[in-house]
Amino acid sequence: MERQPVVSSNLMSVGYEPASETLEVEFKNGRIYQYYNVPQVVFDMLIMASSPGTFFNANIRDSFACARM
């Protein structure tokens, strides 16, 4: 999955696959996680957030099933 960089103290880049509703997040520590069944609107809001890390922690981290890649 292709990811795009984000300006964040915790996140390095994010990517999204609409067909499977999979969000991929690369953290500054090098770990990569995939989050499942994430609606497109949530990804769009993440990308547009003034603080992607804060948005991620509040709306994604504990709200969707995930797996470390």
Task: Describe this protein's structure.
With 69 residues, the protein is an alpha+beta fold. The protein has one domain. It is built from two helices and five strands, in the order ββββααβ. It has helices at residues 40-48, 52-59; strands at residues 4-5, 11-17, 22-27, 32-35, 66-68. A five-stranded antiparallel β-sheet has the order 1-2-3-4-5, covered by helices on one side. β3 and β4 form a beta hairpin. α1 runs antiparallel to α2. The N and C termini lie close together (12 Å).
Rounded radius of gyration (Å): 11 Å
Low-confidence stretches: none
Number of E-type strands:
5
The dominant shape is: globular
Portion in strands: 25-35%
Q: How many DSSP H or I helices?
A: 2
Features:
69 residues, alpha+beta, five-stranded antiparallel sheet, 2 helices
List the helices and strands and how they pair.
Layout: E1 4-5, E2 11-17, E3 22-27, E4 32-35, H1 40-48, H2 52-59, E5 66-68
Antiparallel strand pairs: 1-2, 2-3, 3-4, 4-5
Helix pairs in contact: 1-2
Provide a compact summary of the structure:
The protein is α+β, with helices and mostly antiparallel strands and 69 residues long. The protein is 25% helix and 32% strand. It has helices at residues 40-48, 52-59; strands at 4-5, 11-17, 22-27, 32-35, 66-68.
